[in-house]
Amino acid sequence: DPASPYFLHVFDQLGSPLITQFLVGDNYSTWRLAVTMALEAKNKLVFINGIIQKPVTEPDASAWLRCNNMVTSWLIHSTTPTIANSVMWIQNAHEALHDELFSYRTAPPCTCGVLPNLTSFLDEDYLMDFLQGKNDSYASVCSQLLLMDPLLSVNKAYSLLLQEERQRSLTS
């Protein structure tokens, strides 16, 4: 059904960019507008704005995964290689756009001394979002990471999860 958000046209390809204007760092606003229009035209905007969450039952779960991977691939191939390397590790298209928006926001000037606390608060939220997206088999590791005081950065948590994954692959 071409009206379904799970419909993929025969010309939809994983390696093709969604738009011709790549995200280079200082053009986020125009890039985002072009991506939004292109995804809306392809009936895939619902994967970016979070309207369609990952279903838990088949056949919708497989269809969602296939389309989510397609949208994520389009986003990756619509950015410069340095940005694409960071987007590549995002597990769903909704997070990919959220992550890029977050990385281009700058904090307003602060003279009251609250900015470090706000930054810390946002970093904690970002860590929580990152850890919530992990597979249930990592639940105990994620719990241990959340018990650390002070909380780790997302990069450090990612590094520790990679080490855990390597250890698991060696023992299996």
TrEMBL record:
InterPro entries cross-referenced by the UniProt entry: Copia-like_N
Protein name: UBN2_3 domain-containing protein
Retrotransposon Copia-like N-terminal domain location: 9-55
Pfam families: Retrotran_gag_3 (PF14244)
